[in-house]
Amino acid sequence: MQAAPTAPPIAPTDPLVGRIETDRFCDDCGFNMRTAPVFRDERTRLLLARCTECGRIHDAALLTTAGRVWLNRLGVFATVAWMFFLAWATFMLGLAEMGLQYATLDELTEASRVGRQVEADMDDYWAFVSLMLGLSAAAGFVMVTLYACAAHHWKKIYHMLLAAIVPMVPMTIAWRAWISEAPHLEQWAWQYLLAHASVQVSAGILAALFGRTIVRGLATVLLPPRARAVLGFLWLADGKPPPGTK
Ligand SMILES: [Zn+2]
User: What is the pLDDT of residues 59-102, one digit of tens each?
Assistant: First the structure.
C-alpha cells in the first residue's frame, strides 16, 4: 500500500490505461479511488493511479498480485452466496406475505357449523386491517429495496416491474388456499387480497424510486466512515461521488 513518494507527476500525455474498478482507499486522505484513472508512466513503465481527491500518486499494480487473484476467486464465491441469499430473502418475504393475507381473511371470519362466516362486529377492525396492510407494505418495500441495492445496475423500470409482478405470487397462493377453505367467501375475500397486493405493489414502487436514497441516508447516519465507504457502489449507482473514509 506504499505510494512511491518520488513518483514523477502524471504528465497529461501519459496514456490512460483504465480505471480502478474496485474499492481502493487513498492512503493519504481516505478517499475511495474507485473509478480513478490509471496511467502508465512513460519513463518507469509503472502503472500509477492518482487520487482524484488529494492528487497523491499510488502504485496501481498492487491490484494484480497473487493474493488479489485469490481475493477475486473468493469474490466469485461471495457473489454466488449473495445471490442465494437474495433468492432466499425473496422467498421468505413472499412466504410471510402469503401468511399475512391468509391471516387477514382468517381473523376477519369465524368457523361455524355452515362453514366460515364473516365476523359481524369485530373490535378494532380498522386497527387490525391497517396493521396487516402496513406489514404487507413493509414486506414489499424491503424486497424491492434489497434489489435496488444488490442489483443496482438494473434500470429503475426493472425494479418497478419486480415490484409489480412479485406480489402476484403470494396473492395467488393465498387465494387458492382460501377458496379451498371457504369457497363461498371468495368474492368477499378478493377485496382484502387486492388491498394487500395493491399496498405491496405501491410500497415496492416507492422502494424502486427512493429505496437506495433511504439506504444511503441510513448508512450515513448509522455507519462509521470506513464501513460506509465500502458501500460506495450505492452512491456510484446514482452518479454521486462515493463517501470518503474521513
Ligand atoms: Zn487522496
Answer: 886 654 556 667 777 788 888 898 899 999 999 999 999 999 99
The label of the residue with cell 508512466 reads 41
Residues 38, 18: contact at Cβ < 8 Å?
A: yes
Contact criterion met (CB below 8 Å) for 200 and 136: yes
Distance in Å, CA 65 to ligand 1 centroid:
22
Residue 244 alpha carbon to ligand 1 centre in Å: 9
> How far is the C-alpha of 118 from the C-alpha of 121, rounded, in Å?
9
Could you read off the pLDDT of 137-169 as tens digits, one per residue? 999 999 999 999 988 889 999 999 999 999 999
Quickly name the fold that domain 16-64 has: N-terminal domain of TfIIb (2.20.25)
CATH 2.20.25 location in the chain:
16-64
Quote the ligand 1 centre to 220 CA distance (angstroms): 20
